[in-house]
Design goal:
The structure is a homodimer of 493-residue chains. With 493 residues, chain A is of the alpha/beta class. Chain A has 16 helices and 14 strands.
Chain lengths: 493, 493
């Protein structure tokens, strides 16, 4: 069953982050949060998410889901297939909210608690249908960080866990099933350990908050973005791996520096020390600026890892592939290509990193658009990934671009393609690049040559491709020659 | 005083990482390590570093420093200005090595210990010249992670600290001065806290090493690559910042999940549990593969942060700027431009992310090369960043590219530029792209128009630019018209 409507009870930073993750994936959300400023605070998170998703992927996403602000738990949950609880971390409050939910929700709607500490067995202890409760613990910003800890209680059934893993994966997340309950689960155990140690280091005057943060982000933080604790140390162990590392460092577990395990006293002095240093460190950014810097960095890091086919980048790549497939399917369903006219080959928005110091799309990206259009046309005639893997492809031999208008970041753009001629080894294409409003931005005239990837020299394409290419070329031959075709640089029409 | 010769005493993973960092920055290194396999193990690290630096920056780096393997401490240190000690973590061993160093080294050579735990005051207690000892604690891989903790002892003088900060910065590193001594300093306190907690989580069967690692690298690890502990939580505190965060989470310092502070017993059972899980998780990669995956990711993450002008990316950008400046200065010293001939405008190597599914440089990158060549030529005639900031620039109106040959990853390439005509608002350039061996890869013919960035329409360039452009255009008019100029797509010569 595909989830189309989710209820979010509690709309703080985490609840709002869930709402953003859902609606960016085309899911409608009913929100209930009794706080007077809940709606305006949530809108700030949704705005950030919109901005981040525009950069995260070029794939066409489903139409954004709707947010309905409700006046009661009943109103929020009655039509929901999935219910996210993100209310304050007190068991009595959560039990009261669950009673309200069970009074009005479908009995098979999953209840997913965002708690960062309370064990699911305690959460589900008073439920009529405890088998459908899980903890799904996400991390801020929920709309960008892939991980979600999925934890069941003693009464949670396997089917609920499986549904959760499948649902969160479909949202571009990486669900990790924590199979044994423990208070605070896994990530927050680790984060608490760092936090406790960090407080001591500040309190004892060893370092400032800024120095400590720099030691993290210029050092092991870079490692942790791509490999975790054990894989990192496995490498440190060299050829002999983890056993060698443990032999080397296991004994020092009892050394003095691992014994700093009291908790510092939480008092005004500690608060002022830390908050004062934090102001000195980050106070020149307002919180929205910091959030956007963070989001831009998280997007860029995940894209960098995608290029390396690793870790969080693989999750992003899988997510995009699903989006691309869905987009391709949708195009196929909605319309078949009219080969008698110029063909819509690509559409996207201008990514932020495509613009240059002149604040418009860099000239090289025009050619990228036309290259992508050529690729799309190649796929249409059968020169797809499988064909290329079999040893044939088209290489561009020659290109003529006319830059007619500028286009800025995040603007919608599309390409159209006309076949000037297509026969034998040659394919002569004329692309036009348009703003979403139809305005002509550039034209790209291209001569492509079919090559054998083995010999790297010109060769005949497969008979299937040749049939498809010539069929379209014959129809396009009846179209007027496009304006600007066949011209040299600087040549007047 | 510029450091040209360093001694490295101890050549394990950390010592070898230092050697790599030094020689990639043009510094000669004398190494002493008595282990029989020290040289072959070090070579593996140096190979990795070579590979990573080829990807890290396109800037021209200084000629690689030489490594000399020495037969004694004396031989290694006698001519060194900087001495790195990376011997086993036992104070008696370190004291003995220091005595040997002081017997043979210049008295003002800095002694920098790579210790990850011992306090510098203890290290320097028996030195004749204790004022020159520091701890400079780096992180694996030393050649790629920017951070180095710089710690002085009670007898260390300020000048030594300042020299260290300056030296490590020149190597593309981010030195953080830890101003108060503590065993294990800062990063390893935090890492020990995570490690201790991780061991419990595995031992208690809450999670496996792979699940724990995934929870890190798909979650908070992505955050820590760009913001540290305190800045991250400042954001979590929302508008009210760190004070609000502390008010919310300070009290829970005494909650049960922060109390798991014993150390697990180090025994065979624990070793087998962890090493077995680690084998299941990562055993399908050999250690070299893992190191290279890690290095590629660290490079990509730092480049991603560079594009966002943040954190470790800023360190990389500073480092590259110094390299580019040094390269430009060197070019300026070596030769002045001969304006009567075609002009060498750019040179670089093909970055890994410039290649596509056909395993050669993607067509869009050809235009990027030509765009960069146009930019370089613009700077030569005075259309530089200052001029653009004042409101004028050249936009490309038209482009004709002939793709003549393929080029693969990491290959050296350069561009040459000939002015076809240059007068008034128009600049007609003809670039050629060559492999480092001279082979012609492509030609790019471009019509650029000078524009006012305010009106976004054509305008006259400044008189200075016009003078420079016409002077070169007049000289280039005497050159033969380049092959392929003035042609339309598909037009025979």
């Amino acid at each position: 069953m595909s989830i189309t409507t989710v209820a979010c009870v509690g709309g703080g930073v985490i609840g709002a982050g869930w709402v953003a993750r859902f609606i960016e994936n085309g899911i409608d959300v009913n929100v209930y949060d009794p706080a007077a400023d809940a709606q305006s605070k949530m809108q700030a998170v949704l705005d950030n998410a919109d901005r981040a998703y525009a950069k995260l992927t070029m794939a066409q996403r489903p139409n954004k889901g709707a947010v309905v602000y409700c006046n009661s738990v009943e109103e929020a949950v009655k039509a929901a297939q999935w219910i996210v609880e993100s209310v304050p971390e007190r068991l009595d409050i959560k039990h009261a909210v669950y009673a309200d939910i069970e009074a009005h929700a479908a009995s098979d709607a999953v209840i997913a608690s965002s708690t960062s500490g309370i064990m699911p067995s305690d959460l589900q202890s008073q439920l009529k249908h405890p088998e459908r409760l899980i903890v799904a613990h996400p991390f801020n910003p929920v709309y960008l960080l892939p991980v979600v800890e999925v934890v069941g209680g003693t009464k949670t059934i396997v089917d609920t866990i499986e549904r959760a893993k499948s649902f969160y994966s479909s949202l571009g997340m990486k669900p990790i099933h924590v199979k044994k309950e423990i208070e605070a689960f896994v990530a927050d155990r680790l984060l608490e350990a760092i936090w406790r140690e960090s407080l001591w280091l500040i309190k004892d005057g060893i370092t400032t908050t800024e120095e400590l943060d720099d030691i993290v982000r210029f050092g092991f933080g870079l490692r942790y973005a791509q490999m975790g604790v054990f894989e990192t140390y496995r490498i440190a162990g060299g050829e002999a791996g983890m056993r060698h590392f443990l032999a080397q460092f296991g004994p020092c577990l009892t050394w003095p520096w691992t014994k700093l395990m009291d908790v510092p006293e939480y008092n005004d002095e500690l608060v002022e020390l830390i908050a004062g240093q934090s102001d000195a460190q980050s106070g020149h950014y307002d919180i929205r600026e910091l959030e956007r810097i963070r989001d831009d960095n998280l997007v860029a890091i995940q894209q960098a890892l995608k290029a390396n086919e690793w870790g969080a980048g693989l999750v992003l790549a899988d997510y995009e592939k699903k989006l691309f497939d869905a987009g391709a399917k949708q195009s196929g369903d909605d319309q078949s290509i009219d080969e008698s006219q110029v063909i819509r080959t690509t559409q996207r928005r201008v990514p932020p990193d495509w613009t240059d110091y002149n604040n418009h799309m860099n000239e090289a990206r025009y050619l990228q658009c036309f290259g992508d259009a050529s690729d799309a046309f190649m796929r249409m005639i059968g020169c797809d990934a499988d064909y290329i893997a079999s040893g044939g492809s088209y290489f561009t031999a020659e290109t003529h671009i006319r830059h007619l208008d500028e286009v800025g970041v995040n603007q919608p753009i599309y390409t159209q393609t006309q076949v000037i001629s297509g026969a034998g080894k040659k394919m002569h294409l004329f692309h036009s690049l348009h703003h979403g409003d139809g305005r002509l931005l550039a034209t790209g005239e291209h001569m492509l040559i079919h090559v054998s990837l083995e010999t790297r020299s010109a060769s005949e394409p497969s008979p299937d491709i040749l049939v498809n290419l010539t069929r379209i070329a014959d129809q396009h031959a009846k179209l007027p020659m496009p304006d600007g075709a066949g011209r040299a640089v600087g040549q007047k029409r």
